[in-house]
Description:
By secondary structure, the protein is α/β, with parallel strands linked by helices. It folds into 2 domains: about 5-200, 2-enoyl-CoA Hydratase, Chain A, domain 1 (Alpha-Beta Complex), CATH 3.90.226.10; about 205-250. Helix content is about 45%, strand content about 15%. The protein has helices spanning about 30-45, 75-95, 110-120, 145-155, 155-165, 170-175, 190-200, 205-215, 225-235, 240-250, and strands at about 5-10, 15-20, 50-55, 60-65, 100-105, 110, 120-125, 130, 170, 180-185. The strands form 2 sheets. The protein has a 6-stranded mixed beta sheet with strand order 1-2-3-5-7-10, with helices on both faces. A 4-stranded mixed beta sheet has the order 4-6-8-9. β1 (about 5-10) and β2 (about 15-20) form a beta hairpin. The two termini are about 25 Å apart.
Amino acid sequence: MSYQNIKSQSSEGICTITIDRPSKLNALNQETIKELHNAFKAAEENKKVKVIILTGSGEKAFVAGADISEFADFSVAQGEQLAAKGQAQLFDYVAHLSTPVIAAINGFALGGGLELAMSAHFRIASDNAKMGLPEVSLGVIPGYGGTQRLPQLVGKGRAMELIMTAGMIGANQALQYGLVNHVTPLDELIDFAEELARKIMRNSSVAIAAAISAINAGFEEGENGYDTEITQFGKCFGTADFKEGTSAFLEKRKPKFPGK
């Protein structure tokens, strides 16, 4: 598939999706959101892809925010539709993929950029990364899930402060807050992401998908995460991966998971 604003390439089970609008600091516009959706969908449907890495082109920005020029003149109804469509098309979509998504944050991740990173299953950052949700400085609030995912990751008080002050935090503070899992030098970021991806790929992709479902359920309104865990745990017993994993353990050998 051909893209104008992103790049997507797969190798040895890892699909790397790169937002590629360097002149705009990789800002998200509607076309980029659509292309990202299509790239994630293609990766999810590709049985050879076991892990997805999401990053930005260049050294300055992962995604420096949304393309404000697209919605500066929107009405109330248009604004609500913008948030609803974006959440469904990309941000919630990414969060609920069964293929693990690692956000490799290189440089600025602001506004919609941080919201996109928070949609990933976990995040790593380069040591020059800066993160924040500055929307209130524009007279609006985060609309792509930021008011929900940031408190889940860093706690209500810290999220309130970050959103209300429209401030930015550096990579090490983000690590301290639990917003990112690891910080690396910029030139080592993708290598480190790929190393993490290979560790994930040693395990059962079926079990990982079940774990994602169970973990997400604990943060969904009206869902009981414990009940989902019980259901997903039970389903694992009917998989070829479970038979291979337990057999390999008992036979004291490394498993070769068939992924089904």
